[in-house]
Every structure is written in C-alpha cells, then in structure tokens.
Amino acid sequence: MRYLKLLYDNFEEYFCEALVAVMIFSLVTQFSVRVITGGAVSWAEELSRYCFIWATYLGASLAAKKAAHVRITAQFLYASIRTRLIFRIIADTVWVCFNIFFIVITADMVREAFLFPEVTATMGIVKAYVETIVPIGFMLISLRTIELYIRNWRQGTLASLVETL
C-alpha cells in the first residue's frame, strides 16, 4: 500500500523523468548517427516529439500539484488574504471548469481518432495513442488542483495558497 501511495504522489515526476530521458536518448542517437554516418534514424525525431508532448502535459499536472503555475497576482498585492483567497478560488474554479470542457472535447477527438486511425509516418503507431495525453493531462491538472484545495483545507492551511503573493 505504501508503494502505491508513493507512486500516486510522484506519478508525474517519474513519468516526466522517464519521458525526458527517452527524448534525450533518441535525440543523442539521431545526432550521433548523423555525425558518424551522415544518415538518419527515422524513428528518433518522431519518438522525441511524442515524448516531449507527453512530458509537457504531465509537467503541467505536476505544476498544478505543486501550485506552481504562472499567475498574474499584482492586482492583489494590497488586498487582504481573504480577498486574495476568494479570487484564487474563483480563478481555479473557472480553470477546472475549462479543463472539464476541454476533457469532453478532446476525449471525443481521441475517440474519433481511434475510429478512423491515422498511422504515424516512421514509427507506424496509431496517432490516437499519442493524443490520449491531452484529455488525460487536463484531467490530471484538474484532479491535482482539487486535491491541493482538499489537502490545504484538511490541514487548515488554505490561506497559505495566497499568503506569499
């Protein structure tokens, strides 16, 4: 059970690290083959691109988990903590609603991509597998945002979300 909690708590970090490692490996392989032989490895660029896309969406989820997304907060510098918190909750609620809307749209897009599969040029995989990260990423961002509020609520530290403005 402890292992599952550790995996859940660090899911994004583990996968981002693995994806970036694969991306770097494929780019180094592509570079080395070009320098040594003058040729190219056909799959390396495509694999690195897909790893980058997945790492980006998982990294956005990681940023949501750590409350590290970029925010414009200058307009709240002189507001009370309570006012800042109210506006933060409103902004995050709008953000989660947008994410849910986007999950529905992109899930439908992925469903259609599986119904009418398009195969990638060099690796020969169905592009829908790559595109599944879009609804998954937005779902993870929403879950991590909600989880952040729940965790801070239970600890009685909800105001800590806006104290460091």
Q: What is the straight-line distance between the termini?
A: 37 Å
Number of strands: 0
**Shape from CA axes?**
elongated
Q: Which percent band covers the strand fraction?
A: under 5%
Oligomer state equals single chain
Structure characterization notes:
The chain has 5 helices and no strands. With 165 residues, it is mostly helical. The chain has one domain. α2 packs parallel to α5. It is elongated and about 65 Å long. The model has no long low-confidence stretch (mean pLDDT 93).
List the helices and strands and how they pair.
Blueprint: H1 2-37, H2 42-65, H3 81-115, H4 127-131, H5 133-155
Helix pairs in contact: 1-2, 2-5, 3-5
